[in-house]
Design a protein that fits this description.
heterodimer, A: alpha/beta, TIM Barrel, eight-stranded parallel beta sheet, 11 helices, B: mainly alpha, 2 domains, 3 helices, 0% strand
């Protein structure tokens, strides 16, 4: 089965992960900009980071036949420094021109401070101005309920096309308001701190698959890119068809990300893939017998 | 031995995660019962789970909850 990993921090992972992802059906990964584990001091550090995920990571992914796309953003933690953030934001349009840049993400909130909210709003406005997709990080653990509500309040005041906004890291207590408001919602599968594969499938059973993206994020902390494949297995184990699985784990990412024409992967139907697989492979012409 | 606060530092999130998984399992069971004409079919394993939660929900004089749960889930000796 072909899978798209719509949220993946390749910069923090090994080539072996790319190799294993390729072997398990991943055909494309999308890498949002995120926190490096420490607060950066210089705008130039962000710019070089964007170059690394925009220029270098695609070459690593290509070694394994995986397409690589990226997003630019100042993450919510570092948005606490507005001066630095604004210097970085000035450079976003340069990256929007790159052939594999999908938009602004992951922006959002962490502790929902005034500075975070201000820079979040500025990043969303910049994305709107440049007709970019938007990927939003919702806070961790005890901050998630309040942070998600604040994000929805801030977005309410902005002229966003909700079908072009993906609000990520949703769980059982935050998914409903996101979907009800018309946004895309993401489940991030983590071993401990976010959603589990089984709970993700529960939510798919409860809410259906429309406007849902499933990812395993995977970064420098305790995380595992293969929780996504675990989720596919869990979904299939509950009796769902291969086509239904493909709608969630491949076609839904195409539906959302394909709103940016740079993301040009086609939608897939199992039947069409079967027909293609059954077509006879043209054999090479028989070599002439050795006459010597 | 760890200090009480270090135990929580190391294991709070893991315990939180496991409890949410248990909650999700019970919700999954309830939804399945609602959609199945046979209901819970008298399967007493679900009662065992609820009994185990009672053990977990009370403060204990002795730290032997794991042992109590294992006995609860054991067959006769």
């Amino acid at each position: 089965m072909q899978i798209i990993q719509p949220h993946y921090h390749a910069i923090a992972r090994t080539a072996q992960d790319y190799e294993r992802m390729a072997m398990s059906g991943v055909v494309a990964v999308c890498e949002p900009a995120f926190w490096a584990g420490f607060d950066r001091d210089y705008p130039e550090t962000f710019i070089d980071y964007f170059r690394q995920i925009g220029e270098f990571e695609p070459t690593r992914a290509a070694e394994y036949g995986i397409r690589h796309f990226f997003w630019v953003a100042v993450n919510p933690k570092e948005a606490e420094n507005p001066e630095l953030s604004r210097e970085v934001l000035k450079k976003f349009p340069d990256f929007f021109k790159m052939p594999n840049c999908l938009g602004v993400g992951e922006t959002g909130l962490h502790k929902s401070t005034a500075n975070e909210a201000m820079i979040f709003e500025e990043q969303v406005s910049l994305a709107i101005e440049h007709d970019q997709l938007i990927l939003i990080h919702t806070p961790h653990l005890e901050d998630k309920t309040h942070g998600t509500r604040r994000i929805l309040e801030i977005l309410e005041g902005l002229p966003v096309d909700r079908s072009r906004v993906w609000i990520d890291h949703a769980e059982e207590h935050t998914i409903r308001p996101i979907l009800d408001a018309g946004y895309w919602s993401g489940f991030t599968l983590y071993p401990i701190t976010k959603c589990s594969p089984k709970r993700a499938v529960d939510m798919l059973e409860m809410y259906g698959r429309e406007r849902i993206l499933v990812n395993s994020s995977a970064d420098w902390g305790p995380s595992d890119p293969f929780t996504l494949q675990e989720c596919v297995c869990e979904y299939r184990r509950r009796g769902n068809s291969l086509q239904d699985a493909m709608e969630i784990f491949y076609n839904n990412p195409v539906r959302f990300l394909g709103q940016n024409p740079k993301f040009d992967l086609p939608m897939l139907k199992v039947e069409e893939m079967r027909e293609e697989a059954e077509e006879p492979v043209e054999q090479p012409a028989e070599e002439p017998a050795d006459r010597t | 031995m760890l200090t009480p606060s270090k135990v929580l530092d190391l294991y709070f999130l893991e315990a939180r995660c496991m409890l949410i998984e248990v909650a999700a399992t019970l919700d999954r069971f309830d939804r399945a019962v609602d959609s199945d004409s046979n209901g819970d079919d008298g399967d007493n394993r679900i009662e065992k789970l609820y009994e185990s939660l009672q053990v977990l929900s009370s403060k204990s004089e002795t730290p032997d909850r794991s042992e109590q749960l294992l006995k609860l889930f054991s067959g006769p000796a």
